[in-house]
Amino acid sequence: MDTTLWRAALVTVSPAGVLMAGERHERVLAMLSAGSEGKVSARGLCEAVTAVLGVNGTGVMLMSGEVAYGSLCTTNEITKMIEELQYSLGEGPSVDAYNQDRVIAEPDLADPVAARWSAFAAAALQVGARAVFAFPLRVGSVRLGALGLYADRPGYLSDDQHADALVVADVVASWVLDTQARAPLGGVAAALDSDADFHLVAHNAAGMVSIQLGVSVAEAMLRLRAYAFGHGRTLTSVAEDVVERRFRFE
Question: Do 43 and 148 lie in a common domain?
């Protein structure tokens, strides 16, 4: 995406229908654009967001309806594991931010403010996350997924970090839509696909299970997740067995 299009993303409609403008947006946009040399990759975007917000890691999850496509980008192994856990378990901050269309904040997974994510919380703590936050990605009424952040220490985002994250989420959503608009008809833009993990094997397996059981693809994905969780396996490994016809749901 050209840096001029970062500038175009500056003037976009917020959820309240108010045009974004002002010193904060200019500052955040300038920081995101720094060092991009005219082009921005998905991985570069996540890394820029991490630096701008002063967190330990960033991930962008894309979703549609009840289906999570996977991660557009992550910044390190911990973030990658957090995204993988949410995809495999079907729960977590980014999933809630998308489904509930609101900001999700958990300042201490070890002592949560609310009882939620029974499987995700313990696993995220184990891989090194202590606080997690998620901001819905949307342009107007179009919801695209969620921007996920993590910190290795407990605590809320500061007021400035929270306000900056709202701006960043709008810019990321605009970047995704603009980048995909440049893709060939029926394809995924190269800039989106190059750094992404869209779990194609899991989607293929869900399609096969939906036929085997005569259920919707969303229900088939739930069955896959339940089986993986119940047997202490990753969703990907179960999906590979289904696709390779080593295992069949009856």
Answer: yes
